[in-house]
């Protein structure tokens, strides 16, 4: 049984974690936290205006570009934090964790003054982001048993408790994960993950997450907290100069395609049928990205080249599908009872994104989803007045699927994969009630866009 925490004024009581099971639970909570934060940051960034035709001046567009760049940088770093948490989970015998609750959530992770909700960029949104990343108060050790869910009020508070657990549990028996199953490669410039193989490396990984998020008293510059403080100050100054300044598009709060049982507060349901289809397409593509990451962090039998292709595919999904579609959605009408409002990326999870423990099945499902999603995008691109980036994203999905297909044509080191060999003649699955599948295949049309065998 663990010793739980309770806030006391400007200090907090540290969570006591006394077993492997409690540590894995706390790390899973941290993974959901990082995942939820990065979705909110990407949402806010996607709502920002881009052109003077949207009612802002040229100097204001420069301000907005800087805010968008800062938000997306923080989101990428949260993605690295999520990967590092997966390393921590693997090191102690846990599994990578990419599930979370749908939006909105009132107080699942924080007190009621900092809900997990998808809202456009604004002064209030930045204040909420500052609340997420603000420095933790001084810790007070707790010695009263109070069973229940993990309780904390600051990101750093949760990580300090996890760090304490890594320091107090027996190192000789704690680190049971395969030493090789750690992601320690950089995903992009200035973005890297921390491998965890022992107590010392666990401490370094956690300390880095805390410092990048809230900074340290002597140096907060460059931290997520200071990034949001600076953006907030600049926005307040611009609003004082121009009270009519509206940096974000008129985007609805928590736009969803349907209500979800795990989000009882309910979101704002998209009424426009065409917008709803694009929003569904965004979310199923986002789910596929999470499945790719789940397979990557499961460290299956893939060769190093196959793992690198899977990493590249996940990277391209994020930059070439998820991010552009998020921006497209903020330009499409909500419809229904919400005249004058636009939609946005709901990051909805319609089902389980865990991948099969059998690598052949996991890859087959991922490839199948990519083929279907590419076809869905091509259908949407043919609609009258369809946004031009929709076709680009559909082409990207087809190319990513083609590249992954070639990566596993020879099977895995454990032997041939007859099931995967049938990928070229996939039978399109029955409709699941979201989008109707067209009759043509993406691979036939976009095979030339894929990389060649020599990688060119």
Write up this protein.
With 456 residues, this protein is mainly alpha-helical. It has 13 helices and 6 strands. The longest helix is centred in the first third of the chain and has 34 residues. The radius of gyration is 22 Å and the shape is globular. The N terminus and C terminus are likely disordered.
Mean pLDDT equals: 85
Characterize the main sheet.
2 strands, parallel
Count of DSSP H/I helices: 13
Quickly give the CATH architecture of the largest domain.
Up-down Bundle
Shape: globular
Low-confidence stretches: 1-11, 138-148, 423-456
Helix content: 40-55%
Q: Briefly, what CATH class of the largest domain?
A: Mainly Alpha
Radius of gyration: 22 Å
**Count of β-strands:** 6
Helix and strand pattern: EHHHEHHHHEEHHEEHHHH
Domain count: the total is: 2
Termini, distance in Å?
56 Å
Neighbour order of strands in the largest sheet: 1-2
Q: What structural class results from the helix and strand content?
A: mainly alpha
CATH superfamily of the largest domain, called what? Ferritin, core subunit, four-helix bundle
Strand content: under 5%
- Fill in the CATH topology of the largest domain: Ferritin
Task: Spell out the key features of this protein.
two-stranded parallel ribbon; mainly alpha; 2 domains; two-stranded parallel sheet; 456 residues; Ferritin
